[in-house]
Design brief:
Layout (H helix, E strand, L loop, with lengths): L1 E4 L3 H11 L5 H19 L5 E7 L4 E7 L5 E6 L6 H7 L4 E2 L1 E6 L6 E7 L8 E5 L2 E2 L3 H12 L4 E9 L1 H10 L5 E8 L2 E2 L5 E2 L5 H6 L3
Parallel strand pairs: 1-11, 4-5, 4-6, 4-8, 8-10, 9-10, 10-11
Antiparallel strand pairs: 2-3, 6-7, 12-13
Bound molecules: 1-O-pyrophosphono-5-O-phosphono-alpha-D-ribofuranose, uracil and magnesium ion.
The site of 1-O-pyrophosphono-5-O-phosphono-alpha-D-ribofuranose has 23 residues, from strand 6, strand 9, helix 4 and helix 6.
Length: about 210
């Protein structure tokens, strides 16, 4: 598993505002979108391309286009939906599929409650969007689901991860082509499975449900 933790003052600044409990939902949503766009730059580094011939006003030259089959972007509902616009701004030709997952806050086990993905993901590069990687249970379930459908690789973009969750994803995905791109790797999980210092419940903060 490859892990890339962003190291850029703009990303750290935007994350700091996001973490602040006084930041209201509209600002939280805008910052989430901006952060995804910045992280997507790194996450799409290995996106497959094909050479194309183009005519500039001056000469004929060779450029690149995103190859077929198009990449698949999968936001994990609900919180991952807040990352979708930022991602598709950068990769407008990507196809979008959805996975609805919720973590049982007592057992911390993930449950898949909705799915709308292409049946066959053979040969697809997939990008999973979820702001929080806490115990890792949700991301592991999402990654297994995508590989079971035939995906060739999975890149997850998360704003914040806990070291415990990152280690769990690494253990569960041995031998798979998995890349995790993070805005920050935090200190730990607390006794109720929240990331410390984290930002609280991303879904609640995005959608104002607290
Ligand atoms: O790593 P884990 O321990 O599995 O926790 C992370 C999951 O928890 C959050 O979703 P949540 O279950 O709160 O659903 P929501 O997006 O609807 O708020 C988050 O968006 C991840 O999907
Ligand atoms: O800290 C956490 C852990 C799980 N889900 C969140 O939204 N935040
Ligand atoms: Mg939540």
């Amino acid at each position: 598993m490859r892990v890339h933790v962003a190291d850029h003052p703009l990303i750290t600044h935007k994350l700091s505002v996001l973490r602040d409990k006084s930041t209201p939902s509209p600002t939280f949503r805008n910052l989430t979108e901006e952060l995804v766009t910045l992280l997507a730059y790194e996450a799409t580094r290995s996106v497959r391309t094909v050479d194309v011939t183009i005519e500039t006003p001056v000469a004929t030259t060779t450029g690149v286009a995103i190859a077929d089959p198009r990449p698949l972007v999968v936001p994990i509902l609900r919180a991952g939906l807040g990352m979708l616009d930022g991602m598709v701004k950068l990769v407008p030709t990507a196809e979008v599929g959805f996975l609805g997952m919720v973590r049982n806050e007592e057992t911390l086990q993930p449950d898949i409650y909705a799915e709308r993905l292409p049946d066959d993901l053979s040969n697809r590069q997939t990008f999973v969007l979820d702001p929080m990687l806490a115990t890792g249970g949700s991301l592991i379930a999402a990654i297994e689901y995508l590989f079971d459908r035939g995906a060739v690789d999975v890149t997850a973009i998360c704003l914040i991860a806990a070291p415990e969750g990152l280690a769990a994803v690494e253990k569960a995905t041995q031998g798979r082509d998995v890349t995790i791109v993070l805005g920050a790797l935090d200190e730990k999980l607390n006794e109720v499975g929240y990331i410390v210092p984290g930002l609280g419940d991303a879904g609640d903060r995005l959608y104002g449900t607290v």
